[in-house]
């Protein structure tokens, strides 16, 4: 097998990345959720049912405005409760309500089970290699993007 050219590699890699995202987008739609609401619920389950708004932004790599809009919708639906944090009026604690816990059971739990079954289809060596390669690629991407981001912006 010959080595891929950069164009072949980036096309395949981006295609895999986009298809992966599409799978989760379809899952979110299946459950009647926006992508952001889906990922908020996923993260709440992953983190034990409560997390601060700023933690959500950091975990999901989304803007405060995007997170805030989805939180308001979930709060209005009775799924979440936003509580003031001591000594911090801007950042709120996001807690799952009993109704939200039911939603987590319907949405997050089946997705986590699906991911675990998927994970178990790979050998331990494949799982380790996947993590190591993704981390190596991400580290290289960070370094290379910093070379661009440190340059003055062009008009």
CATH superfamily of the domain at 36-121: Winged helix-like DNA-binding domain superfamily/Winged helix DNA-binding domain
What is the percentage of strand-forming residues? 5-15%
Based on secondary structure, the structural category is mainly alpha
The largest sheet has its strands arranged as: 1-3-2
CATH fold-type name of the domain at 36-121: Arc Repressor Mutant, subunit A
Poorly predicted parts: none
Tally of extended strands? 3
Spatial extent as radius of gyration: 19 Å
Terminal residue distance? 44 Å
Taking all residues together, what is the mean pLDDT? 94
DSSP helix fraction: 55-70%
Major sheet attributes: 3 strands, antiparallel
Structural features, described:
The structure is a single chain. The protein has a domain of 86 residues: Winged helix-like DNA-binding domain superfamily/Winged helix DNA-binding domain (Arc Repressor Mutant, subunit A), CATH 1.10.10. 68% of the residues lie in helices and 12% in strands. It is built from 7 helices and 3 strands; from the N terminus they run ααβααββααα. The chain has a 3-stranded antiparallel sheet with strand order 1-3-2. It is globular.
């Amino acid at each position: 097998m010959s080595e891929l050219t950069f164009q072949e590699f980036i096309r395949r890699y981006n295609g895999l990345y986009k298809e992966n995202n599409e799978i989760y987008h379809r899952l979110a739609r299946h459950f009647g959720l926006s992508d952001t609401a889906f990922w908020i619920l996923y993260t709440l389950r992953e983190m034990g049912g409560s997390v601060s708004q700023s933690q959500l932004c950091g975990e999901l790599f989304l803007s405060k405005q995007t997170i805030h809009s989805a939180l308001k919708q979930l709060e209005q639906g009775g799924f979440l409760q936003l509580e003031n944090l001591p000594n911090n009026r801007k950042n709120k604690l996001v807690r799952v309500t009993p109704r939200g816990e039911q939603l987590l059971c319907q949405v997050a739990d089946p997705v986590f089970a699906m991911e675990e079954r998927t994970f178990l289809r790979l050998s331990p060596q494949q799982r380790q290699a996947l993590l190591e390669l993704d981390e190596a690629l991400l580290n290289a991407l960070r370094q290379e993007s910093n070379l661009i981001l440190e340059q003055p912006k062009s008009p």
